[in-house]
Amino acid sequence: MARKIAILGGTGAEGSGLALRLAKAGEHILIGSREAARAQETARLLRERIGGPAQIEGLDNASAATACDVAVLTVPFSGVVALLKQLKAVWKPGTIVIDTTVPLAATVGGATTRVLGVWQGSAAEQTKELLPASVSLAAAFQNLGAETLSGDNPLDCDVLVCGDDEKAKQVASELVGKIPGARALNGGKLENARIVESLTALLIGLNMRYKVHGAGIRFTGLPLK
User: Fold this and answer.
1) Which positions ≥6 away from 3 have C-beta within 8 Å?
2) Given the DSSP bridges, would you call strands 28-33 and 56-60 parallel, antiparallel or unpaired?
């Protein structure tokens, strides 16, 4: 049976972009949202765009989290704590969560080029505290822009994958590899997500200064796979 990947917050720009790319790669996608009707509408629009036998369903966040094997957290940072508290009792043991969130000050009305201080050190480390011990976590995709993901062209960027659980990192890296042009790199322990998340604010600033939308990161001198 094919695994099911829930995109929690999947009606937003980042979530729907990831859903589009992964569904095109043949993954079974569950769009999660606070309102099931919104998720169903987003799923319908994505199916129409892709055409063919794309497997995309729309559910409320709790139903998507209950049914999935892998969950990708794409809600704004300001909504993460409330969502994870709501979902705490519904996760299946062995579920893998991939956290894409960045604590941008813009989520609380501040500048888009600044990150908030998180007591735990990073958004990903905060997420880990709020997940049951039976759920594994990796952090990835923080530096991919929503506009780039929502397009059809291959990406030109590396994706750093951080985590303390090797299986979760492996699954996250596999999903990165399903997006044309993206390359997964082992970013080390989960605490390194602090560095990766801050790069998002830097990239936003570069986009603004150079009047582009798809600035990404590439690391040179590494062996190509």
Assistant:
1) 27, 28, 69, 70
2) parallel
Torsion angle, CA of 180/186/189/193, rounded to 10 degrees?
A: -40
In our burial notation (b when 16+ CB lie closer than 10 A, e otherwise), range 10-25 reads: bbbebbbbbbbbbbbe
* pLDDT (tens digit per residue) in 33-54: 999 999 999 999 999 999 888 8
* CB 81 within 8 Å of CB 21: no
For 86, 147, 204, the CA distances from 13, given in Å and listed in that order, are 22, 7, 15
Q: What is the mean pLDDT of each run of 10 residues along the chain (225 residues)?
A: 91 96 96 97 96 92 98 96 97 98 87 88 97 98 93 94 98 98 97 96 93 92 81
pLDDT of residue 108: 77
Per-residue burial over 62-86, b = 16 or more CB atoms within 10 Å of its CB, e = otherwise: bbbbbbbbbbbbbbbbeebeebbee
Query: How many Cβ atoms sit within 10 Å of the Cβ of residue 111?
Result: 12
Residue 57, φ and ψ in degrees, nearest 5: -120, 160
Structure tokens at 15: 């979530």
Say yes or no: domain 4-210 is CATH 3.30.413.10. no
How far is Cα 177 from Cα 159, in angstroms, rounded to an integer? Answer: 9
Q: Where are the domains of the chain?
A: 4-210
Q: Spell out the residues 6+ positions from residue 198 whose beta carbon is closer than 8 angstroms to its own.
A: 115
Do 15 and 23 contact (CB within 8 A), yes or no? no
